[in-house]
Amino acid sequence: MDTISVKNLTVTYNKKPAIKGINLEIGESSIIGIVGPNGAGKSTLLKGILGLLPADTGEVQIFGKSIKDSLKRVAYIPQKEQFDWDFPINVSEVVMMGRYPYLSLFGSPKESDKEIVNRVLEKVEMKKYANTQIRNLSGGQQQRIFLARALAQESDIYFLDEPFVGVDAKTEVAIFNLIKELKSEGKTIMIVHHDLSKVKEYFDKVILINQILVAFGNTSEVFTEELIHKTYGGQLTILQKAEQLLIDN
Ligand code: ADP
Ligand code: MG
């Protein structure tokens, strides 16, 4: 059974398709990059798979079930700008949100939930900030907290939308090490990423997207000059950078 199966997925905004007829069969545990130019529909693809946006056409299955029946198994870190940073909430409260799928309706967290929150805060090296308001953290610290929330959910699939934007180099390394650890536990991690220079280093597989699926497969086979050209079209500056990279590697 596939971990994630996407069949003919089309998502539109005001009748304009943002992604069109996407087909994906994602099998064994791996780290998968979602790569394409600005506005290509990368975030829309994640939201479409998660059922956060209605599908115009198509069907998504997670471990053979609908997304509604798999919510515990899927953790999501949205793109940073989509979070309301003025919302008065502290670090441990944000991380506890990862436990919500496990709490009974109106139920309060159990001791075991609190232990999990403590454990994941330790993992992302943020335990001493447990009572800090989230808006008072640096960009890198905020992203560590988002990751902690996703870890607290103990899911099998992780969707991360541009997790390295606005974070310091040390945090990027720390986050990527935790992502590799998740993979070693058999999990699947899908990461929207726009820095082409890290694609070969980071991802086992790559989804190249620009409204339609340009290609999906092993990074060594898919991250080629020809397919990058096809994905980025006329966006020359990025292309030149990509070409330089292909020469360097
Ligand atoms: P990416 O994440 O690859 O930069 P998005 O998935 O955010 O791309 O957007 C894909 C396309 O859909 C873009 O043309 C964008 O302008 C449009 N779009 C995204 N969100 C909305 C929205 N809420 N309403 C209308 N159009 C949107
Ligand atoms: Mg996006």
Describe the structure.
- The chain is of the alpha/beta class and 249 residues long.
- The chain is 35% helix and 24% strand.
- It has helices at 42-50, 91-96, 111-123, 139-152, 169-184, 199-202, 219-222, 225-232, 236-248, and strands at residues 4-13, 16-26, 31-35, 57-62, 74-77, 157-161, 188-192, 205-210, 212-218.
- It has a six-stranded mixed sheet with strand order 5-6-7-3-8-9, with helices on both faces.
- β8 (205-210) and β9 form a beta hairpin.
- α8 runs antiparallel to α9 (236-248).
- The two termini are 35 Å apart.
- The mean pLDDT is 91.
- The chain binds adenosine-5'-diphosphate (ADP) and magnesium ion.
- Magnesium ion (MG) binds at residues 42-43, 79, 192.
Give me the strand/helix succession: EEEHEEHHHEHEHEEHHH
Unreliable spans: none
Total strand count, please? 9
Output the radius of gyration. 18 Å
Protein topology:
Layout: E1 4-13, E2 16-26, E3 31-35, H1 42-50, E4 57-62, E5 74-77, H2 91-96, H3 111-123, H4 139-152, E6 157-161, H5 169-184, E7 188-192, H6 199-202, E8 205-210, E9 212-218, H7 219-222, H8 225-232, H9 236-248
Parallel strand pairs: 3-7, 3-8, 5-6, 6-7
Antiparallel strand pairs: 1-2, 1-4, 8-9
Helix pairs in contact: 3-4, 8-9
Magnesium ion (MG) binds at residues 42-43, 79, 192.
